[in-house]
From TrEMBL:
Keywords: Glycosidase, Hydrolase
Keyword Ubl conjugation attached: no
Name the UniProt record assigns to this protein: Cellulase family glycosylhydrolase
Cellular component terms per the entry's GO annotation: cell surface; extracellular region
Entry annotated with the keyword Glycoprotein: no
Sequence intervals crossing the membrane: none
The organism's place on the tree of life at top rank: Bacteria
Gene3D superfamilies found in the cross-reference section: Glycosidases
Molecular-function GO term, any one: beta-glucosidase activity
Length: 436
């Protein structure tokens, strides 16, 4: 008799859990979101589970990241650091390698960095993005792009201002993404520093990152081309672990710093990596926010299954906010790209794929990076990490001359890149050629 009772109880639990999963899977308030709202304030804003443009019309942001631009990443970089330090390029290590290069002066090192930024993405790239039919770019940068010797100098915002202005000229929104805070929020190379995890527990770094966001918000207050502020990319509660409450508590400090300077812009809050790695956000009292997730499905499960898991978790956590998929990629299969596109449209989720342009040289040849960053399918070498892909040897900035580095950096323009399959998938989708 006891065994029967136990079996019945287990069965009831299974049924209840299945019912809850179905409820959270099909619970979707975004479908009922009004197409227009009153009291628009000229800025992108979150209202309920949807985003609205400056005129109060519902909007879905569809675009791409400008990765590897302000922050080069070692697996797709144009630069290399040879035998300097660990030999793995990061933004911090790259700067140190050039400073230690006996062939360069400090002034030349700074100049070369600007040559790269001006060459890798230029005005024609923004026009290309707009011509594809996208309406937004996410711009990753770090504190190192704005500060020198711990402070904002003259012209600190020049490069970022240029990017925002090119967005305006081409009818695009810009999402400003702090990819690397002081001390690093994740100890990942894409933060610009893979040698430290020293943001949350270092009061000086905490304060410096809060102050940086105050300066950013003050500078871009009133700028309607800026869709919003992505406060901190992929925060971790400790190295190689997903995020948690400590990250959300620090987001609260950043949120309040921004709101003290700018009451209008949308703020993106990242759950890394899954919605359940977040915290109950009601206690913070945040307004005009959008929850952000990054989806790289490297599991045996289908793309749609992965997307459904994110949807269920988001609903389970009762995040009654719009959703922004700030980074994603479907790699080599056109049908997987189509699955993502259709799912995002069905849910009304905004999204930016990773990324606009890469240098594929390392991840096509280097075993270390190929194992980590190449997702190929049988018989396919169409990696599609970038919509455009360079395939140029890296330059060793720890030992090369000014002329050699300058030549390589100037060659990194999109004219020398090939269109990947991702370009076709995007173009067909945004021009309605995939059908329903």
């Amino acid at each position: 008799m006891a065994a029967i009772i136990i079996l019945c109880a287990v069965g009831a639990i299974i049924v209840i859990n299945a019912a809850l999963c179905l409820y959270f899977l099909y619970k979707d308030g975004n479908r009922a979101a009004p197409q227009h709202i009153d009291h628009a304030n000229s800025f992108i804003q979150a209202r309920g589970t949807a985003l609205y443009d400056g005129e109060g019309n519902i909007i879905q942001l569809k675009g791409v990241n400008l990765g590897n631009w302000f922050i080069q990443e070692p697996w797709m970089s144009v630069a290399d650091v040879g035998r300097f330090d660990t030999g793995v390029y990061t933004q911090r290590r790259g700067r140190e390698a050039m400073k230690a290069n006996p062939a360069l002066t400090d002034g030349q090192a700074d100049e070369l960095e600007q040559i790269y930024i001006q060459s890798y993405i230029d005005e024609r790239d923004f026009k290309t993005i707009a011509d594809l039919g996208m309406n937004v770019v996410r711009i990753p940068f770090s504190y190192m792009n704005l500060e020198k010797d711990g402070r904002l100098g003259d012209g600190a915002f020049d490069a970022l201002d240029r990017a925002v202005e090119l967005c305006r000229k081409n009818g695009l929104y810009a999402i400003l993404d702090l990819h690397g805070g002081h001390g690093s929020q994740n100890m990942d190379h894409h933060s610009g520093d893979d040698a430290h995890f020293d943001l949350y527990f270092n009061e000086n770094n905490r304060r410096a990152t809060v102050e940086l966001w105050k300066q950013i918000a003050r500078h871009y207050r009133g700028n309607r081309t800026v869709a919003g502020y992505d406060l901190l990319n992929e925060p971790r509660r400790e190295p190689h672990r997903y995020g948690g409450r400590i990250n959300f508590d620090y987001y609260d400090a950043l949120y309040r710093a921004v709101r003290a300077e700018d009451p209008d812009h949308l703020i993106f809050i990242e759950c890394f990596s899954f919605p359940v790695n977040g915290a109950r956000i009601k206690k913070y009292g945040w307004k005009n926010i959008c929850m952000e997730y990054h989806i790289y499905n490297l599991t045996p499960f289908s793309q749609k299954t992965c997307l459904n898991v994110y949807r269920m978790m988001h609903n389970f956590m009762a995040y009654k906010t719009p959703v922004f998929i700030g980074e994603w990629n479907a790699y080599g299969r056109e049908k997987d790209w189509l699955t993502y596109f259709r799912y995002f449209d069905k849910m009304g989720w905004s999204f930016c794929s990773w990324t606009y342009k890469t240098n594929a040289y390392k991840y096509r040849r280097d075993k270390q990076f190929k194992n980590l960053y190449v997702r190929t399918h049988k018989g396919s070498e169409n990696l599609n990490w970038g919509i455009f892909e360079l395939d140029m040897p890296t330059v060793d900035i720890s030992s090369a001359t000014y002329e050699e580095i300058s030549k390589a950096y100037r060659a990194a323009k999109t004219d020398n890149a090939e269109r990947s399959g991702a370009c076709k998938f995007w173009r067909d989708y945004l021009n309605g050629q995939h059908g329903d």
